[in-house]
Design goal:
Helix 18 packs across helix 19. The protein is an alpha+beta fold. The longest helix has 24 residues. It contains 21 helices and 44 strands.
Length: 937
């Protein structure tokens, strides 16, 4: 009844010790007795130990049992020793001395193994199996009695990311490695002799997996052979609770294709994807952030029914033989996932990353604690948790070795399996860039339409979608055909839509060209670097579920990279400003580039063509022309057709471009540039004059009423600069250099920076209008071309106080005039300033030879009215008209030209003319007006 009498107990101990002493003396006196008193002595010791066997008397009981163990050497019969060891092991086990109980159990097993029969071997195997718990080499099957890992959710052991050190010691206790190896070898030997292939396979797998660093290569190969031999005796598909090789750890969740990315939907926003981060399936790798605290919340991942997913695991074979894994796949206990097996071969001392895939089949949670492996003919389950414990124990020095480090794998942080939920089917868009799945090759400035086809590969229709841009170089996407996309909604399963995206290749920087400088300058250079391309972000979703309330099924984000590979195309080598003087006797045809020995020559047989510009004395009836010269070079292997266009807001402005590339027709704007050739094009700049000459452009030159450095002066100067920069940008935006190559390749050359640098120094002369502009008109009949010359007169010049004209074209009368008839004409003078101008007007007439036709000694033209020293006053921004009549005596081509000397010129006019002296006369000269006179002399 659990009660003891101390007096009675003392009496029993006294009598037993007396009996033990008597038997011991008898044994010493006569060793030749027929019946040895040793057995009686040992029996008395065991009876006393059984009587005293409790924790408070453990020391006394232990001494009795150890004394009995010493007496076992005197026993002749093996059966007696067997009984003795069994009783000693049982009593030590009752006291809780597991290691001593295991030791004497092994003695029992040794006695069984001395018998050469299967029954004894089976008994030895059973006894040794009972000792595995004490030596921590037990089978996982026995440990599941107290802890069934298959029924425990994965999250319960890995939510915090921490593993208790005691669990590591209980699984792998390296301090007892020698004894553990001996015990496992004894189990292996006994199971082989007992013809139990499953037990022998289990023992060999535990021995090889836990103690491979302490086993020689020959021993490792022997264990592998033992595993294979045991598997040959087992039925196909046999499962074992103890895993062998390889070692498997969860590596990462590889980045899934972007078209499968899931985004939570916010039902309270029209743009439901804003403010809600993606929910998976694989957003980043690994899930555990570096340096994150152990208390962080568990990552959540969503998988979709019917869509394949992937998990990356790492396999290691730290042994010296080739390992063939017949199949490996994810172990799913939730039953709503179909895993796909793969086979792997691992050479000795190597590791390998393997992608394991599968398909979710039902909505709900998924639990994946590890992998199912078919290796050495037996199917086993490898748990990620156990390998995590092993690696943590190796890091703390509690385990013999890290198998992954032995195989050359880098140090890896433990990755926890996330909380996975399966959602109903969603639409799935798959993108295909038509004709450009790799890289879209574009020359610099090339504009091309790229067709993108989107196919719904899911089982749910796409009800709504939105297309936006992200990434770098977004300005290279000119337009997206949103209307085509929206009109195709909803996209049913299997349906597709194709829409166009207009792209324009950006200009390659000097750093890009220097990075590719090893290539020949005469060959095309492809510049395609990572992280420079734009992306199309397409957020789309299916229909809302019935009775969904505030919760909506998630949507998706499709990222379509526009992989643009920019190829070095035609380049602008240089842009500079030219001043060209054209003789007044020249006709319009002289402005055309012609081959041969003319004013503007071209050479088609040389690598670089040249343009020779004539310099004519301005006092002999010439007029000036301001030109922008662009030198273009083609370093590629294709031919470019260049089209230079000068756009103007005025409908009557002639947009002619003087181009050396076409000798047949100056009106054609196209220039052909062969490979490894350069060409120059000339662009007249006279059409870009400002309408009014304002004093605000001369703040620095003329000074300000405000003190130097005052706030008002600074504001005035800043406003003037802003207006000037706006005018420069407006001028540059009107000059377009477009090119064509082949049938479908076209683009626009980036010339903004080069033109701005070329015009910066002389922009005032180009943009500022002349103070006075002149035009002629028939008084009674006839028409003229371009009679409004407010944008066509020359710009002032400081040469000897003269303002030389420089028009972009020559004015002419469309209808011929008859000789020997009085022709009434008018000259119109416009004041382009905000001040009154007083002037002396003079009109001259010259023939094709440049001779003065009004010369009284050799006059060929008679006139009526006043043609010289005409005193006029012109109001601000107004016009005055002076009439006169001419009478032509000789048929031919004539040109009328008006000029005025400004009286009492203001500071603005002197600044415009860049006059060096206040007494210097300011002369304004108009462009020639051509008249064709017909008749008989």
């Amino acid at each position: 009844m659990g009660q003891s009498d101390p007096v009675l107990e003392d009496e029993v101990k006294y009598r037993y010790y007396t009996i033990i002493q008597l038997y011991r003396r008898a044994t010493l006196q006569d060793n030749a007795q027929r019946v040895s008193p040793v057995s009686f002595e040992l029996e008395a010791a065991l009876k006393l130990a059984r009587y005293l066997c409790r924790r408070e008397l453990a020391k006394e009981v232990s001494d009795l049992l150890m004394g009995a163990a010493d007496g076992a050497k005197a026993l002749i019969d093996a059966s007696d020793r067997l009984i003795l060891y069994i009783e000693i092991a049982r009593l030590f086990g009752t006291l809780g001395y597991e290691r001593k109980a295991a030791f004497f159990s092994r003695q029992v097993a040794q006695l069984y193994l001395q018998q050469d029969n299967a029954y004894a071997a089976m008994s030895a195997m059973q006894v040794l199996t009972m000792t595995t718990n004490a030596y921590h080499v037990q089978s996982r099957k026995t440990s599941r009695i107290n802890h069934d890992s298959s029924k425990e959710p994965r999250a319960s052991s890995t939510d915090s990311g921490k593993v208790h050190p005691q669990s590591i010691v209980s699984l792998f206790e390296s301090q007892w490695s020698t004894i553990q190896m001996v015990v496992l070898r004894e189990i292996l030997m006994s199971s082989i002799r007992a013809a139990d292939p499953l037990s022998s396979w289990s023992a060999a797998s535990r021995l090889l997996r836990s103690f491979y660093p302490l086993i020689t290569p020959a021993g490792q190969s022997g264990l592998a052979s033992s595993l294979a031999n045991s598997a040959d005796k087992l039925p196909t598909g046999t499962r074992c609770a103890d895993p062998c090789l390889p070692f498997i750890r969860l590596h990462s969740f590889p980045l899934h294709p972007s078209q499968r990315e899931i985004v939570k939907r916010n039902p309270h926003k029209k743009e439901w994807w804003t403010g809600a981060g993606p929910t998976g399936p694989f957003i980043y790798t690994p899930f555990s952030k570096a340096g994150a605290s152990s208390g962080t919340s568990k990552q959540e991942v969503s998988w979709i029914v019917g869509e394949p997913v992937q998990v990356m695991v790492e396999l290691a074979n730290p042994c010296s033989f080739d390992l063939v894994v017949e199949s490996i796949y994810l172990s799913v206990h939730s039953g709503n996932f179909d895993a796909f097996p793969v086979s792997v071969s691992l050479p000795p001392n190597t590791s390998k990353l393997v992608l394991l895939s599968g398909i979710p089949t039902q909505v709900g949670q998924i639990s994946i604690p590890g992998c199912i492996v078919h290796c050495f003919g037996v199917i086993t389950e490898h748990l990620f948790k156990e390998v995590d414990c092993l690696l943590l124990g190796a890091a703390q020095g509690l385990v013999l070795s890290d198998p992954f480090r032995c195989c050359g794998s880098s140090k890896f942080k433990s990755v926890n399996f996330p909380s996975i939920s399966v959602v109903p089917p969603l639409p799935l868009l798959v993108a295909n860039v038509v004709g450009g799945d790799g890289s879209i090759l574009l020359y610099e400035g090339e504009i091309r339409d790229v067709l993108i086809t989107l196919t719904n590969a899911g089982t749910v229709p796409v009800e709504e979608a939105n297309v936006a841009l992200s990434g770098k170089n977004q300005d290279s996407v000119i337009s997206i055909a949103h209307s085509t996309w929206k009109s195709a909604l909803p996209i049913k399963p299997g349906g597709e839509v194709t829409f166009a995206v207009t792209l324009r290749a950006w200009h390659l920087s000097s750093a890009d060209l220097e990075a590719d400088g090893s290539r020949s300058p005469a060959s095309s250079r492809r510049i395609a670097r990572e992280g420079i391309n734009p992306f199309l972000n397409i957020h789309y979703a299916g229909p809302a579920a019935a009775n969904s309330g505030d919760s909506l099924p998630p949507g998706r984000r499709l990222v379509v990279p526009l992989n643009i590979c920019v190829v070095q195309g035609m380049r602008l080598v240089r842009a500079r400003l030219l001043s060209m003087e054209i003789p007044a006797r020249f006709t319009e045809a002289h402005l055309r580039p012609v081959s041969g020995k003319d004013d503007i020559s071209t050479g088609n047989d040389t690598e670089h063509t040249n343009i020779n510009l004539l310099k004519i004395d301005p006092y002999k009836g010439s007029w000036g022309l301001r030109l922008l010269e662009l030198e273009l070079f083609n370093p590629t292997d294709v031919v470019f057709d260049v089209d230079v266009a000068v756009h103007s807001d005025e409908p009557n402005v002639d947009q002619r471009v003087i181009s050396e590339g076409n000798a047949a027709d100056a009106a054609c704007h196209k220039t052909r540039i062969d490979r490894d050739y350069s060409a120059r094009v000339l662009i007249p700049l006279e059409n870009f004059k400002l309408p009014v000459l304002d004093a605000s452009f001369f703040v620095k030159e003329s000074g300000s009423d405000e003190p130097l450095g005052s706030r008002a002066a600074a504001i005035a100067e800043r406003n003037a600069k802003a207006e000037l920069n706006a005018s420069i940008n407006n001028l540059i935006s009107k000059i377009k250099v477009k090119w064509h190559s082949g049938r479908n390749s076209s683009g626009e050359l980036n010339i903004k920076d080069a033109i701005q640098a070329a015009l910066q120094a002389s922009i005032m002369d180009i943009l500022l209008p002349d103070p006075l502009t002149f035009s002629f008109k028939l008084g009674s009949k006839g028409t003229v071309t371009n009679v409004d010359s407010s944008k066509d007169s020359g710009s002032p010049s400081s040469n000897d106080g003269n303002v030389g004209p420089s028009t972009s074209n020559v004015l002419r009368c469309e209808d011929p005039i008859s000789a020997h008839e009085m022709t009434h004409m008018e000259v119109q003078i416009r004041n382009n300033t905000k001040e009154i101008i007083l002037m002396n007007l003079s009109i001259s007439c010259k023939d094709v030879a440049g001779e003065n036709c009004f010369d009284e000694n050799s006059a060929t033209v008679l006139w009526a009215g006043v043609l010289s020293d005409i005193h006029l006053e012109v109001q601000p921004l107004q016009e005055v008209v002076h009439p006169f009549s001419v009478y032509y005596l000789v048929p031919g081509d004539y040109s009328l030209q008006a000029s005025s000397v400004i009286i009492d010129a203001t500071d603005v006019l002197r600044a415009r003319a860049k006059a060096e002296s206040p007494d210097e006369p300011i002369l304004c000269r108009g462009s020639p007006f051509h008249i064709r006179v017909v008749g008989t002399a």
